[in-house]
Specification:
By secondary structure, the chain is α/β, with parallel strands linked by helices. It has helices spanning 3-9, 26-37, 55-62, 98-110, 161-170, 194-202, 212-222, 251-266; strands at residues 47-51, 67-68, 80-84, 87-93, 115-124, 133-143, 156-158, 179-186, 205-209, 226-234.
Amino acid sequence: MLEQDIREYAPILTHKNYNAPSVFTPESLIREARRQKQVLVGKVPSICILDPDGDLVDYLRKTGQARQHPCWACYHSNMDIFDYEGVEYGIIGRAVGAPFAVLVAEELFATGCELLISISSAGQIRSLGTPPYVVLVEKALRDEGTSYHYLPPTKYSTLHPTLQEMLYTSWNHGNIPLYSGKTWTTDAPFRETEAMIAACEENDILAVEMEIAALYALATAKSYNIVCFAYVTNQMGRIEGDFEKGDEMGSHAALRLVDQTAQSWHTR
């Protein structure tokens, strides 16, 4: 099929002017949410976290460390704030999937976020050991839809080299071991076929998740600082006893991960 024919049957690739501003903006959405919900004007913490599984949010609430942000005006999510090792963070749980993650990320950067850390639960493709373990995602295969609204078609979305170097040069592996590599971002978790998994293995892709390609596309398109980690917790349900995340559903590891990233950011 010729490229022209492909575009005719793939509307996601047509009528994209990547330099044109959007008519609908996150600022407009926030303005109306504030008005309708009677939320005060205010900024979010400079470092925010996306927690798609919601386990870290649940842990922080259970242990009394989280409090609701009074100025977060999103229609679709709630923000908690907490302090850890002297740094205040904003955190949003259960923003699952590329469209939702990017919608929330746009609103975060529109209200004062300077660095966004995403920790996506991921399924193991190429083994680096027994899960759970953490991968700093350098590239994410764009097998979702959201990224194509921000950047022209390419195979991967990528972590900004400056952020990558920042983390490589300062990471304390004694605190939390860190791998790095590529993931596959999909919109359809129940279409993870043997053929696609094999193709990913051939391309040295380590894990599959649902948000990162879109978040990195947003970061590139708008010059936002976004760092994504894949928390490899499972083998896609192919064994019994899968989806174990460790102590407190991985919350202690996630806090160490966030702390390390924040330290690197503040000392850059």
